[in-house]
Specification:
This protein has 462 residues and is mainly alpha-helical. Among the domains are: 216 residues, Endonuclease III, domain 1 (Orthogonal Bundle), CATH 1.10.340.30; 69 residues, no CATH class. It is 41% helix and 4% strand. It contains 17 helices and six strands. The strands form three sheets. The chain has a two-stranded antiparallel ribbon with strand order 1-2. A hairpin with a 5-residue loop joins strand 4 and strand 5. GO terms for molecular function: oxidized base lesion DNA N-glycosylase activity. It comes from Lachnellula cervina. This is Putative DNA glycosylase.
Amino acid sequence: MAPRKKKNASQIGSVSDNLPHNMGPVPEIIKSEIPAKALKEEPIDSPLPDSPVAKELVTPAKVTPETKKKAHKYKLNYEQSPFPDHPLPTPEVAEEVHRLLSKEHGQRKAPTKVPPPSATKSGCGEVPDLLDALLRTVLSANTSGVNSAAALQGLIQTFGAVNGSPNWHAVSQVKPEDITKAIHKGGLSVVKGKTIKNILSIIHAQNVERRDALLREKVTGEPAGVLATSHLTQIQKDAEIARIKENPLTMAWIFEIKKDSEIIDELLKLPGIGVKTASCCLLFNMQRPSFAVDTHVHRHCKWLGWVPLNATADQTFNHCDLRLPSHLKYGLHSLFIKHGKTCYKCRANTNPGSADWKKAKDCPIEHLVDRELTRKPRKRRRIEDSDESEGDSKVTSVKRKSSGSTVVKPTKKAAKITQSKPVKATPSRPLRASAVKARAQSSQVKDDSESEVEEVVSEYDE
């Protein structure tokens, strides 16, 4: 056997250069002249906060939740109607209603200048100062004009007057109980007293915050990010600082907001201020077109078919404010209120078929309204001439005597029930005038007749 050739020392190499398990020397890495392509970094999903992997990490990744658009407090949508498929009101229909009511009650046009405040009438925002307009509408909410005027007079007599309005600065310095005592003649004085105090406190705090932020911006040069100041010059910002210093209850900065929807949203942040109050201030005080919806406007919009029967007042505002032409909003609002108060057939408590209804003046929009939509019929009371109703054994029949008086007689099935289980007797309600009239007519029918008279008393929502 031939002897084994020994390898040269130069061919063996050092031990440190060999691969393990006698796999030979480490191969030399040959650098390529072509540059290598960069590896793509693929996104790695961050572990969930509650997972074991995330707990082991020193700084676990933050999971940012999906930002959802916050729903409006009053479910208003300034870009789309809550009833997008409802066809009315069209501009032509609105023009016709405005023409008919203007012919009946006279033209209603927005004044070129806001009138001075009245010391005897609270109103709904027809004053130059926005804060004064808001607080006057709070006084007039859910009460009559006489009561709201008495509340206004109580504030003026207790705290004094400034330019025909209560001294709101003096009102802001007292406790809610003192405000309640001053407006006790106006109704809901406890609630309104707290609301007025809260509004004054919030406005004062907002103005102090705005003033401090504008002063800080002037010193540091960094934008303060104050609402409705981004388009103002430094001279205009200095004027606002001086205005707040003179009157810490001013709301003049609201007029700098461009969009009407943003103004309404800003006013809705105040306690006790709803959509109708914000819309009234926008319409009367700020003189911007807005279709404010009160109880008269709401009722007419339903009767005219401008909104569905189940539409709320806020939904009616949202729908009609988008559909109506801007130049008709002031007139239709004022005319609906005037017509709802003066036309007997369009009042909230009207009674179709009554003597007053027949004597009432013809309604100029009679051919356009359907009052049956909001009528609430009472429960029917069956009045029979026979001794007992054979068709309905569960209903108590009413037996008539020849003298015209009525005697309630239980049926056979009802008599068995009362014998087995005692029932507390309830006093019978007195018949209405229409029932008495129906009873008189039915008494003229012969005794052997089986005719019956049904009474349905119609009532309208207030």
